[in-house]
Structures are given as C-alpha cells and as structure tokens.
C-alpha cells in the first residue's frame, strides 16, 4: 500500500509525520493509495479540499485539538488499520457569493457555508429556498447551511440539529436570531437551493465563509449540495462518522 503523509505545521504533527515516514515510507500525493493527514479537524478539511481531485481516500490521525474527523493517533499497525477502515462518502456544498462590486466568489464547503455580520450592526437577511421566498427578514448575527458531516461543528454551537450522516438533509440555522425571536432554523432536503440576500449591505455589512474561507462585503449567496464532488474519509471500524454523530448528542 502506497501512503502519502501530510501534516499541519505544528511541531507535534510534524514530529508524527517524520516518525511515520521512517516506518512506512512516503510517496507523492498523486501516487498514493491512501493519504494520511496528521493534525486537527481544520487541517483535515484543508487536506480534503486540496486533494478533492485525487482518487485516494483520506485517513486522519489526531495531532490537533478536537479531532472529530480524525482517528486516534497510533504509529503501530497502520497498514492493518487502513485495510480495515470504513469509508464515509461526503458531498460538499457549493457557494456562489456576490460582493458589493458585483464579483462572484465560488467555493466548496464540507462543513458549512455561513453568513456573519461584519460590524456592530445586526445583519438583515432575506431567505429564498428553491426560488420561493421563505423569510422576508431575519435579523441576526448570521445564518448558516450545514451538511450532516458539519452539523456538529459551528451549526451545533449555534444550537442547530445534529444530522445523521445518511439523512440527505441540510440544516439551515440562525446565529443569535433577534427577529423572529428565537427562530432556530429549518431542515431542508439535500437537493434544496438556498439563497440569502443581504438587506442594507452598506449599513449592515456581511461576510460569507465556506469552511473558514472568508469573503467580505457580500450582498447575496446561493448554496446547494454538489453531487459532482465526493470526498472519501476513512475511519477505524466502530468509530465511523455515523457513530460519532450519534455519540456527540449524548456527551
């Protein structure tokens, strides 16, 4: 099995990469059967985006903080773990965000696409789903659309629901909604197209983020699932993404 090891810039991740390369060898990403990512969840997302056009699946080992998308770090028996690993196939969200100058910014998001206020003023958003206006005005700190894989990240912190990995559902969640008071959001089919329009963008500037890639002075955003792109993540047996999503709700 040909393995490519990649790691975050932290000393602990770089030390782990050197140790694993000494034990198992290393090949270029383009030649790998499996890519092993060493770091935390943020680095895992970076790796998935960077390697999305490569055929190899990605197996993460936690050398970061939370490591929700990572497996436990252990230098022993890596080949056996890779052979027995379970595969989770994920489709990202595609984002088309238009800024005040009329420029369109395109990005993919494995976890979520979010709109966040960029000043002391609350954001005012209009929400359209599949071409039908669903909310004339949401006054809030922001709003987001999350995938099942990302539902335990920012979405969960904003009191959004945890989504089962095979549910074919997206979570639309408000961040600190002021009007309508305490509106928590909605569950939408994976096929839905969500559009946010920003009201009063000069007075109430808004930024858009796709997995932490930020774009300023946004006036509208269109979000939809992208079935043309599939990310494959490997997990140790019994510790797959579905089990982690369920367990997270009981912690």
* Total E-strand runs: 17
Order of helices and strands: EHEHEHEEEEEEEHEEEEEEEH
Kindly identify the CATH topology of the largest domain.
Answer: Tumour Suppressor Smad4
- CATH homologous superfamily of the largest domain? Probable inorganic polyphosphate/atp-NAD kinase, domain 2
Q: Examine the secondary-structure arrangement and name the CATH architecture of the largest domain.
A: Sandwich
Biggest sheet overview: 6 strands, antiparallel
Assembly type of the shown chains? single chain
GO molecular function: NAD+ kinase activity
EC number: 2.7.1.23
Keywords: Kinase, Transferase
Organism: Ascidiaceihabitans donghaensis
Structure report:
This is NAD kinase. GO terms for molecular function: NAD+ kinase activity. One of its GO terms (biological process) is NADP+ biosynthetic process. Its EC number is 2.7.1.23. The two termini are 36 Å apart. The mean pLDDT is 94. This protein folds into 2 domains: 107 residues, Rossmann fold, CATH 3.40.50; 133 residues, Sandwich (Tumour Suppressor Smad4). Helix 1 links the parallel strand 1 and strand 2. It is α+β, with helices and mostly antiparallel strands and 251 residues long. The radius of gyration is 19 Å and the shape is elongated. The strands form 3 sheets. It has a 6-stranded antiparallel β-sheet with strand order 6-5-16-13-8-9, with no helix packed on it. It has a 6-stranded antiparallel β-sheet with strand order 12-11-10-7-14-15, with no helix packed on it. The chain has a 5-stranded mixed β-sheet with strand order 1-2-3-17-4, with helices on both faces. It is built from 5 helices and 17 strands.
